[in-house]
Write a structure and sequence with these properties.
single chain, about 180 residues, alpha+beta, Aminopeptidase, 5 helices, binds coenzyme A
């Protein structure tokens, strides 16, 4: 792998639409994106705006994926990551999440934590979160509708700046229910 990350610009609009519409996204709420929807997402600034930045995941000169960073004015930004089907399952996801984690903490000094949410059965994404030092913080039952009409559980992960700096992964306090 020879990976780098390139920020998207206005001239990438057509490539972005092609990327989004030419693959299936089985774990996203919209699993097949049509041209109109993709165009609307681009126009409304979902990828590049004051609050959003996006980057091509480039491997050996080819765009194999897309990182989208959201809520950049907040102390807790979120991200989305999509790899082409042909490039899934070969370790690119973990490199991308390690990269975006460092980018957010270094570029935005006020960012205290970074969050990501995925469908409970997205095993590859969940492995990537854990490998990159993210801790599971949330389990939302019946929270994630899919295009087929079923409803799935969603899981939320986050990494703290202090953990990223120390290399530890601190667990949330789960057993904190007040006693009567
Ligand atoms: C989710 C995604 C980013 C993961 O990146 P990836 O490069 O494919 O993942 P990796 O190859 O690094 O694999 C990560 C781990 O998941 C495991 N894995 C991969 N595919 C798997 C599958 N279908 N079932 C179970 N485990 C799987 C790998 O063995 C690896 O495990 P390890 O850490 O123990 O070695 C990528 O698959 C993708 O873009 N999927 C479609 C879009 C998506 O679901 N994005 C997430 C939105 S929140």
């Amino acid at each position: 792998m020879n990976m780098s990350f390139r920020r998207i610009s206005a001239s990438d609009a057509d490539s972005l639409i092609r990327f989004l519409t030419s693959e299936d996204w089985p774990f996203h709420v919209v699993s097949q994106v049509d041209r109109e929807t993709a165009g609307q997402w681009v126009t409304e600034g979902r990828f590049e705006s004051e609050e959003n930045r996006s980057f091509w995941v480039v491997d050996d000169g080819a765009a194999v994926g897309l990182v989208r960073l959201m809520d950049l004015g907040d102390a807790t930004p979120l991200f989305d990551l999509r790899l082409r089907a042909a490039d899934r399952g070969r370790g690119v996801g973990a490199v991308a999440v390690a990269w975006l984690t460092r980018y957010l903490f270094e570029e935005f000094p006020d960012v205290r934590r970074i969050e990501g949410t995925t469908r409970q059965d997205n095993r590859a994404m969940r492995r990537v979160f854990v490998r990159c030092g993210y801790a599971k913080e949330a389990h939302y039952r019946d929270a994630w509708p899919s295009s087929g009409g079923e409803v799935h559980d969603a899981v939320g992960y986050a990494v703290l700046r202090r953990d990223w700096l120390s290399g530890e992964v601190t667990a949330p306090q789960w057993n904190d229910e007040p006693c009567e």
